[in-house]
Design brief:
OB fold (Dihydrolipoamide Acetyltransferase, E2P), mainly beta, 5 helices, 21 strands, single chain, 11% helix, 44% strand, six-stranded mixed beta sheet, 2 domains
Length: 324
């Protein structure tokens, strides 16, 4: 018998939680602090009219507090009609693990078991204990009275925008006819890609240049032991080229059983787009670019271009000749 889990990362460790307990997943928004909560409870969010507490999973484990990033996510868990969010570094995938591959944990606390998937060791969380088991209270520090005090004005604006979108989303919308879209920024413009074409999002780390490669190859990056090629698609979209820096983000997708990453400036949010709201691409777009664009839709009172990520990754211009 196989069990279904949502796989996620917390800094450099891999965890999983029972997928049946997952209510929702979204990028980390601005969180409203509450003074009387335990130190590991960052605060609360307004999720379409419902007040949901959010905990820092690292603090829950007793780790030191760390700065939040725009690439962090919140997984909302539910047990017995009680919901709470946990902050994680990234959400990776939904996986199935056979029961016979799950081993008991060395310590009986928030980790309910361990499993090895390939060459990766995964800690399986006991979400019931995570949400209900009390821990010794620790005083909140002054920095915990404000959400992410280290954030830049630009990061704070993104966090605030995400919180606004979560609170304003309509609970009456039906899933039918809605497409989850990841909203990203390139050269000050909004672009979107359908979420089912994305494996995960990551920050650029330890970028290694690749000698004798065309400019659209930004370099290679190690993603949990796998070498991933990073692509700069600005030229493909007729945008001014920019040098890839560690401040950027990566949209990770699988291409021909290999990992490929598209470099973007920022990941803003995940939204649901109504199919009826998607408009054809403007006629001014060059024919050479039209095959990479699925249409446009309004986002934050501006036009967002929806990209066809599989078509981009299948573009021969982006393929590196291994004999180079």
């Amino acid at each position: 018998m196989a069990n279904t889990f949502l796989l996620f990362g917390l800094k450099n460790e891999l965890f999983a939680v029972d997928a049946m307990a997952v209510k929702e997943v979204f990028f980390l928004p601005e969180i409203t602090s509450i003074e009387e909560a335990p130190a590991f409870i960052v605060g609360i969010i307004n999720l379409r009219g419902a007040i949901v507490p959010v905990m820092d999973l690292g603090l829950r484990f007793g780790h030191a507090r760390q700065k939040y990033n725009l690439s962090d996510a919140v997984i909302v868990l539910e047990i017995e009609n009680r919901s709470a969010g946990i902050i994680v570094s990234q959400v990776n995938d939904v996986i199935e693990i056979p029961s016979f591959d799950i081993q008991p944990p060395p310590f009986d606390h928030f980790v309910g078991g361990e499993a090895r998937v390939g060459d990766q060791l995964i800690m399986l969380l006991d979400h019931a204990k995570l949400l209900t088991e009390p821990v010794p209270e620790s005083p909140r520090t002054a920095e915990q009275l404000y959400f992410c005090p280290e954030a830049s004005p630009e990061e704070r604006a993104v966090f605030h925008e995400r919180a606004h979108n979560l609170a304003a989303a309509s609970v009456e919308e039906e899933p039918a006819g809605l497409t989850p879209v990841a909203v990203m920024g390139l050269n000050g413009e909004y672009f979107g890609v359908e979420l089912d074409t994305v494996s995960e999002f990551a920050e650029i780390q330890n970028l290694s240049p690749v000698p004798c490669c065309p400019p659209h190859i930004a370099g290679n990056m190690n993603l949990r032991g796998s070498v991933m090629t990073l692509l700069n698609i600005r030229e493909l979209l007729d945008l001014p080229t920019q040098q890839t820096t560690a401040a950027g983000m990566v949209v990770v997708s699988k291409y021909r059983d290999l990992l490929a990453g598209v470099v973007v400036d920022q990941i803003y949010s995940i939204v649901r787009v109504r199919t009826a709201d998607i408009m054809p691409a403007p006629a001014v777009i060059e024919k050479t670019n039209a095959k990479y664009i699925k249409g446009t839709v309004v986002y934050n009172d501006r036009v967002m271009t929806l990209l066809d990520l599989p078509a981009i990754l299948n573009e021969e211009k982006l393929i590196v000749n291994e004999e180079m």
